[in-house]
Q: What sequence folds into this?
């Protein structure tokens, strides 16, 4: 089983959606976690509402710092994926075990005003779902780290809604 960390600045929306979808879709092949460089302290209510509608248990989700994953005793990470451009451009901690790192930029649905927020969260969910489907179609167990990095980068660059930084 691969351990994967989904990072975003606030760990309240996109990274939470990524963690939820990976754990729901991977049939135990991947264990996902999420964190933020500057966590909001709570999961965005629209994230919880959307995941509830999709039938995904939200009882254990919390907004947490990436520091929890860079200390002794933290899960050994195989993959780290940033999902927002600000986290993608930040200097990440040195991860124990030197995991493969990739960037999958997705626009932040939490900054959209109330009138368009449901649609923005739905879009972020669909974009994350598309990328995770592609991730899970890979032979994760047999790819070298270089091959995995290349495949993850392509997923981020070629997927619907890729932000400018992800396309670089």
A:
């Amino acid at each position: 089983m691969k351990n994967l960390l989904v990072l975003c600045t606030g760990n309240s929306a996109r990274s939470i959606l990524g963690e939820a979808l990976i754990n729901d879709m991977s049939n135990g092949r991947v264990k996902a976690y999420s964190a933020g460089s500057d966590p909001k302290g709570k999961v965005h209510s629209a994230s919880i509402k959307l995941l509830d509608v999709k039938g995904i248990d939200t009882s254990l989700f919390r907004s947490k710092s990436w520091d929890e994953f860079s200390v002794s005793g933290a899960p050994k990470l195989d993959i780290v994926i940033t999902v927002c451009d600000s986290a993608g451009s930040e200097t990440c901690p040195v991860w124990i075990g030197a995991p493969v790192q990739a960037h999958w930029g997705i626009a932040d649905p939490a900054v959209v005003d109330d009138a368009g927020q449901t649609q923005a969260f739905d879009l972020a969910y669909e974009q994350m779902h598309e990328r995770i489907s592609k991730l899970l179609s890979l032979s994760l167990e047999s790819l070298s780290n270089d091959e995995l990095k290349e495949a993850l980068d392509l997923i981020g660059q070629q997927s619907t809604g890729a932000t400018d930084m992800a396309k670089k």
